[in-house]
Amino acid sequence: MISANLSAIFYLISGVLFILALRGLSSPETSRQGNLYGIIGMVIAITVTFLSVGNFSSGFIYVIIFLLVGGAIGAFIAFKIPMTAMPELVAGFHSLVGLAAVFVAISAFINPEAFNLGFPGKIKLASLIEMSIGAAVGAITFSGSIIAFLKLQGIMSGAPITFKGQHLINALILISIVFLTYFLCVSQNSNLFWILIGISFLIGFLLIIPIGGADMPVVISMLNSYSGWAAAGIGFTLENTALIITGALVGSSGAILSYIMCKGMNRSFFNVILGGFGATEQSSKDKNKEQRPVKSGNADDAAFLMKNASSVIIVPGYGMAVAQAQHALREMVDTLKKNGIKVSYAIHPVAGRMPGHMNVLLAEANVPYDEVFELEEINNDFANADVAFVIGANDVTNPVAKTDPQSPIYGMPVLDVEKCKSVLFVKRSLSPGYAGIDNDLFYKENTLMLFADAKKMTEDITKNL
Amino acid sequence: MEIDPFIFRLSIFILSIFVGYYVVWSVTPSLHTPLMSVTNAISSVIIVGAIIAALASTEGNTFSSASLFGYLAITLAAVNIFGGFLVTQRMLAMYKKKKKDKK
Asked: Side-chain half-sphere of A277: how many Cα atoms within 13 Å?
């Protein structure tokens, strides 16, 4: 047994270590050390909890067993998961945090004495509010993340699911959550607590189904934020500083990422959340679908173009992740570099299905991170580059975002690919991207379309170099 | 008059939001994916609540309903802690600089 004050100080230390863990991510060199700080913080928090509870009876053995079982599963997943599946993994992990928050809240509700919160039926008012918030946000995080996971895995269609009166139903449910919390506090009726958790699960599900696949970067960031707020809510209930600090950190981190992702698409947060994007644009696109001529080429042509270039910029997108083409791409770049050609990578903020998705894939393929540039850093270089090699990206290169105020993506920051002397587009077909709009770039004089699977095409080009 | 301890916790909470705000803006965009996985891992510190819940049961009743939920929460949070930190480690190990000896 250690005193409450001493354990509070240790919780504060682990909170500070978690801050340092995030601070480390400001550059790749310090990031590994940051992760170590995070691990130490976690070890301190868990050890102190064991010491402060001071119960080393048979229950303790079970705690260790469950800890190790969960840990083994987690470690197994962490080592096995392919890097292309990171968005699914993160969504899945969010759902676990959410569910754990719900379970802790339930446990505190049925056995409040254990947490010094009063007695069943006579729980302290503040604690009851805090645990209701923790449970509700946790439940929303859980069911929302499950939907995000299913959409990312392709088990559920990535297309937005909308129905009439959707927003009205959601609004009513959200209002009823507030009322339920109020009546729960007044009556201490446990049935209300269960209903509260039940409808929170439901609203999490309903909030995410109308959001389309390419908006997943925002959704994942948002759920990341929710999992933080849920942890903070539980932290207030348990009067635990480590949880409060962490919850606040994670909550603001997710919120900032959502903001960055929305800005990358030039859309407001509410526009994304209300969902249904892409579905409404379909009709306008069909109208003027005359056949315009495109130049298409094969791997030989592409290799010829690149061999005669002095600088090449690669623009990867979600299609590269789907085709698992990152390793083939790096081999192609190696060959180019051997021929004395300067190669760099341009990453759009919303390329892929989660923040930083492309960077991780390129890092996995051993691309040095100082060859990879963000949009603002590299956008001026397109004018001086000879070839832009667009692989699996589409909407983020569409010049219509700069020229046509009618376009649904008008105002979105795009990569100035059209300024290159020539553009190579690796794509499976001429189909429009997620936004459902045609890309003028396909029909430009200096564009060569390479219709093929991204991985196969890249390998073929390498052979021809 | 004494200040309610809740106010202290609220102060910690608000200040931590600001700390988080500035720290996260300083994270380089290329590390946003590891940022998400590591925040995921640290938010699983919720396991401390789960441990208290699991061990709170009275002697001889290791599996009361309250502690059962505690055990479940421990398992979920442990998946996240180990999975989150290890996958972050795995990702960060891949971020390499250009080799100097390259021509």
From this structure: 26
